[in-house]
Write a structure and sequence with these properties.
- The chain has helices spanning about 15-25, 65-80, 100-110, 130-135, 145-155, 165-170, 185-195, 200-205, 215-220, 260, 290-305; strands spanning about 5-10, 30-35, 50-55, 90-95, 95-100, 115, 120, 175, 180-185, 230, 235, 265, 275, 280.
- With about 300 residues, the protein is α/β, with parallel strands linked by helices.
- The chain has a domain at about 5-130 and about 170-235: Alpha-Beta Complex (Spore Coat Polysaccharide Biosynthesis Protein SpsA, Chain A).
- The strands form five sheets. Strands 3-2-1-4-9 form a five-stranded mixed sheet, sandwiched between helices.
- Strand 1, helix 1 (about 15-25) and strand 2 (about 30-35) form a beta-alpha-beta unit.
- Helix 2 packs across helix 7.
- The longest helix is centred in the last third of the chain and has 18 residues, at about 290-305.
Length: about 300
């Protein structure tokens, strides 16, 4: 099985190299989009960690904005166009890290080649309000003079504050989930084809909130691939103690998380998307080398015990 890891990177160049190195095998390739807000020179060392392609052109990516969808679509299309014909496409951030060895992860995907690992719930749902689609969102990358004009038009009600998403969606049911997923080639081809064909639907999402958590989910959730969906494989600390619940960002992982990370964790039925294995965790800092070394040591010891 050939795996294409699609990576959104923006602020952890040193950790990106560790992530790529940990997942590198003869069957794995890496397609990386480095946020244009970041200095590309900081990421050059990561090229040496594996079979890495830095995609161009780069765009400026903003949290909760359609630019995240644009960057992900660029990664998908770059990997699909590669002549090596990858079987599995795994979306990660540059702040992720595996909790299993690269060989274990590849065996895991080989055992379920047709399963689509993507969190999916119908909207509205807890934390996924339908207002994300209804409320017209101004783009953060828009030049200030134009944003001022847009705000004025909204005050005058010449630019709608709210939209009827059903007019655009038609028979499509809105779904939402988490940004990170691991899809088959068939699913990525379906997503790419849909986005190229349904240009009006895509444009609608340019002014929605957090479209990275609903754009791909709605496409796959309304496709013939829907019965193949299982929960995603990436864990993050959203606990209140983690300090980020409700703030739009999970806690940064540190040595205090080590007992959980090396406990062979898995999702249970109590979480919103149900039970399932955990292969990756986020988010790690640029200076997380000590934590990563501890995780690697645990993975190696576990492999030795099973040998």
């Amino acid at each position: 099985m050939k795996i294409a890891y699609l990576i959104l990177a923006h602020n952890t160049p040193a950790h990106l190299g560790r992530l790529i190195s940990a997942l590198s095998t003869s069957s794995a390739s890496f397609f990386v989009h480095v946020d244009k807000n970041s200095e590309i020179a900081d990421y050059q060392a990561a090229r040496q960690a594996g079979d890495v392609t830095f995609i161009e052109p780069r765009i400026r990516v903003y949290w909760g904005d359609f630019s995240q969808v644009q960057a992900i679509l660029m990664l998908i299309r770059a990997a699909l166009a590669d002549e090596r014909r990858f079987d599995r496409f795994v979306l990660l951030s540059g702040a992720d890290y595996p909790l299993r060895s690269a060989a274990e992860i590849e065996r895991f995907f080989a055992a379920d080649p047709d399963k689509e690992f993507m969190n999916l719930v119908p909207m509205p749902y807890e934390g996924k309000p339908i207002s994300r689609l209804i409320n017209y969102k101004l783009r953060p990358g828009t030049p200030r003079p134009l944003r001022a004009v847009q705000r004025g038009l909204m005050v005058l009600r010449l630019l709608p504050r709210e939209r009827d998403y059903k007019r655009c969606f038609g028979e499509l049911l809105p779904y939402a989930g988490s940004t990170w997923w691991a899809l088959s080639r068939e699913a990525c081809e379906y997503v790419s084809s849909f986005a190229a064909r349904e240009k009006g639907w895509v444009r609608f999402h340019e002014h929605t909130r957090c479209p990275d958590e609903s754009f791909f989910q709605t496409i796959v959730g309304n496709s013939p691939l829907r019965p193949r969906i299982a929960r995603n494989l990436t864990w993050a600390d959203w606990s209140r103690e983690g300090g980020a619940k409700g703030a739009g960002s999970p806690a940064t992982l540190g040595l205090s998380h080590m007992p959980y990370l090396v406990s062979d964790p898995s999702f249970d039925e109590k979480v919103i998307y149900g039970a399932g294995p955990i292969l990756f965790a986020r988010k790690f800092r640029n200076d997380s080398a000590e934590l990563v070394v501890s995780i690697d040591r645990h993975i190696a010891e576990r492999a030795a015990q099973r040998a």
